[in-house]
Amino acid sequence: MELISFFGHRKKTSVCKAKNGDKEAFLSLMNENRLNMYRVARGILKNEEDIKDAIQNTLIKAFENMYTLKKEAYFKTWLIRILINECNETWRKNKRSISLEENIEGIDEKYHDHYENMDLIKAIHSLSEELRVTITLFYFEDLSVKNISEILKISEGTVKSRLNRARVKLREILGEEE
């Protein structure tokens, strides 16, 4: 996608430059989206190391596959989809293995997550994968139902249904009345 500047010259967007192999443009795009990526990953995964790994894997896959991006306007949607896939893969791997944290008592972690003890975060992490991802994209990323539908490749009605089920479950978990 090219923009025409005030003087009529064509100006390439960062996404276009990144698609053409410009590493600086790609790094700039990743920097612009790093907070969004962290929030999405944090909404899906609990462990800070898993979050970092998922984001790092996302960056590698996005860089290697930039050429597959069909419409530059959908760059953020494309990037978040890659991240969600990486987070889900990490989540599945973690479900299969037994965590050392559960087996070893009395070990202090070097990193203390200030949000770890928040009731809402714990409640969100107790939701099923599909509800957790949907609620994270809607409330933490401020994405519309339509955008979530495109990212998750599900109908808008399914997004609305998942949001409703997630809200009901969160109320139950948090012990709130409607």
From TrEMBL:
| CDD domains (UniProt xref) | Sigma70_r4
Is Transcription among this UniProt entry's keywords?
yes
Q: Which GO terms describe its biological process?
A: DNA-templated transcription initiation
Listed NCBIfam families = sigma70-ECF (TIGR02937)
Originating gene: sigV_1
What name has this protein been given in UniProt? RNA polymerase sigma factor SigV
Span-the-membrane segments of this chain are none
Query: Per UniProt, which keywords does this protein have?
Result: Sigma factor, Transcription, Transcription regulation
Domain (RNA polymerase sigma-70 region) ranges: 31-96
Residues annotated as domain RNA polymerase sigma factor 70 region 4 type: 119-170
InterPro entries, per database record: RNA_pol_sigma-70-like (IPR039425), RNA_pol_sigma-70_dom (IPR014284), RNA_pol_sigma70_r2 (IPR007627), RNA_pol_sigma70_r4_t2 (IPR013249), RNA_pol_sigma_r2 (IPR013325), RNA_pol_sigma_r3/r4-like (IPR013324), WH-like_DNA-bd_sf (IPR036388)
Keyword Ligase assigned: no
Family per record: Belongs to the sigma-70 factor family. ECF subfamily.
Q: Name one GO molecular function term.
A: sigma factor activity
Per the UniProt record, the source organism is Clostridium formicaceticum
Q: Which Pfam families match?
A: Sigma70_r2, Sigma70_r4_2
